[in-house]
Amino acid sequence: MESQDRIKEMVRQKYTEIAGQSLQDNQSSCCGSGACTTTSVYNIMNDDYGSLEGYIPDADLGLGCGLPTRYAGIRKGNTVIDLGSGAGNDCFVARVEAGEDGRVVGIDFTPAMIEKARENAGKLGFTNVEFRLGDIEKMPVTADFADVIISNCVLNLLPGKDRIFREIYRVLKPGGHFSISDIVLEGLLPLKIREAAEMYSGCVSGALQSHTYLELIKVCGYENITVQTKKTIVIPDDILLHYISSSEIDLFRKSGNRIVSLTVTGQKPGSAACCGPACCPQ
């Protein structure tokens, strides 16, 4: 438990630092194209939100690895929770889907992120979006609270993934569902990468094997588990050179082992007005 607490505190400190930066600052610190030199990889996996309704550039710190709201099946009037809500980016997109009668709650354990998200919501005058400081392993909400839970490249940061999925189950209403974008592995990463603290904060070295991740969801009791998207994440050589040699990079590239971003949906058993993103009309 001490080791897990240490990891969580390390992640909290890293994302406190990130909270003070803009998307432009983050992009300039790691362009993700191989033309820059940096030890940070937390922002090279981000998808483009620019085409999504409700997107607020000031709330986008470039920390995601997918677009979970695109597959979340959010309906008007839904109550939505965003796990690891950061500066509020996914919450504001979800708010458009849920409508004026809906409700969106962002949960984050980094006070600086909560402060930034609340500031963004205040400037926009949003009254049906709120941000709560809390650990997503023990969410500050009651059972059967949410219709939909989303998360973007957050669960991978934390060691207690089994506890988080059980907590998601507790908080979802019967028939409710989640849409989560996260990082998994297919094959093994070099040990030096897995042990690098900076890589852990970059959503890589704490990744589970893809089959283990999906089996964990199944064991927690979810139904209709569907991988909506999957893409390979290629970390530029100049980043990897901070951790392994050029010859080790060559071996890794040729091994077929890879880092993958996936978006997965799943449903809590029970009755609901909507059966979930797999079968509801969009």
What's the quick description here?
By secondary structure, the chain is α/β, with parallel strands linked by helices.
What does this structure look like?
This protein is an alpha/beta fold and 282 residues long. The protein has a single domain, classed as 3-Layer(aba) Sandwich (Rossmann fold). It has helices at residues 2-19, 23-29, 89-98, 111-124, 161-171, 191-194, 197-201, 210-219, 237-240, 246-255, and strands at 79-83, 103-108, 129-133, 146-152, 172-186, 208-209, 223-233, 258-267. Strands 1, 2, 3, 4, 5, 6, 7 and 8 form an eight-stranded mixed β-sheet that branches. Helix 1 (2-19) runs parallel beside helix 4. The longest helix is centred in the N-terminal third of the chain and has 18 residues, at 2-19. The relative contact order is 0.16.
CATH topology: Rossmann fold
Percent helix: 25-40%
Percent of residues in β-strands = 15-25%
Tell me the domain tally. 1
Tally of helical segments: 10
CA radius of gyration: 18 Å
What is the β-strand count? 8
Mean pLDDT: 83
Summing up helix and strand content along with how strands pair, one would put the structural category as: alpha/beta
Terminal Cα span: 43 Å
Q: Strand-and-helix sequence, N→C?
A: HHEHEHEEHEHHEHEHHE
Could you give a short account of the major beta sheet? 8 strands, mixed
